[in-house]
Amino acid sequence: MPSSKKKRGVSAVMNKNVNFQIKHILIIVGIIVLILLLVFTFMTIYRASVNRAVERAMIADDGDETGVSGEQASGGGATTTTSGGGGTTNATSATSGPGTPGLMYTIRNNDEYTVRAGTARSGAIVIPSHHNGLPVTQIHPGAFENCTEITSITIPNTVTRIEQRAFLGCTNLTRINIPNGVTSIGVNAFEGCTRLTSITIPNTVEFLGSSAFRNCSSLTSVTIGNRVAGININTFEGCKSLTSVTIGSRVSSIGSAAFAECSSLTSITIPNSVASIGAGAFRDCNRLVRVTIQGMITSINFSRTAFAGDLRNKYFETTGGMGTYTRADGSARSWTKR
What we know:
- The chain is of the alpha/beta class.
- The protein folds into 2 domains: about 1-60; about 80-335, Ribonuclease Inhibitor (Leucine-rich repeat, LRR (right-handed beta-alpha superhelix), Alpha-Beta Horseshoe), CATH 3.80.10.
- About 20% of the residues lie in helices and about 25% in strands.
- It contains 3 helices and 22 strands.
- The strands form 5 sheets. Strands 1, 2, 3, 4, 6, 7, 9, 11 and 13 form a 9-stranded mixed β-sheet that branches. Strands 18-20-21-22 form a 4-stranded mixed β-sheet. A 3-stranded parallel β-sheet has the order 5-8-10, with no helix packed on it.
- The protein starts with a helix and ends with a strand.
- Mean pLDDT is about 85; it is low at about 50-95.
């Protein structure tokens, strides 16, 4: 009997210990679940807050279309307020002065204006140098995007930046001046301006964005100023009518597909400042028969597909290097150094 009682006592103690351990495990699991729920709730609130902030920033950067419509409904001279990174900015629709009526201006840093189309979306557009006594310094991102009835743009020399997509898809644009003073031309700035015939990039421009003039299919001549640091990827891709290219003396790189599908280009001179040529830089330039390379380019920076045929191989032969290379016609694979 004593032995049986002793066993039952030990068993009871063990059961109590097990129950105690299970309770603690359940408490710990509950705490972990609670923490996970709190973390999930916090992340949900945080993501929602970030999304709202991004949406507000996008509206401030690209212009509130509802605000533009409001201006159109209330007539010229109406004022809307948009939220910007530097605080509150006022946007006004101009109806008089030297600029084209209907242009929309947004004040920046309290001392300069950025401009976009507003209701001025056709014909010859003249951007004034000043608005309300302050200089107009920037053409807004997407300012005239897909304004297919615009025929010409006059830009004052107060403008320093032509932002991304500023004139993308302006398919009837035939003439534009880029004045001295512009330092940056953004990504896709003039892409798809299919009636633009010539462009001169002044010596003040330092940055030329990728695809800036992509698919400008009527473009015949391009002059790139002497302060442009590099020709980015796809910059002139698909400019099928391009016959004349002058590359500035400070260009150090020609990016991938920069002049791809320029099927009317017959010759190109690459200045001695150029240190790299990217993949497919002159891909499908089917009439290119004369290439002058004025500088030294290392093999690692000279893509094997930069030019069709064996030009790269000939360049790195002992008799190669700087000089002019030609081929019989645009379909020939063999190049000869002259």
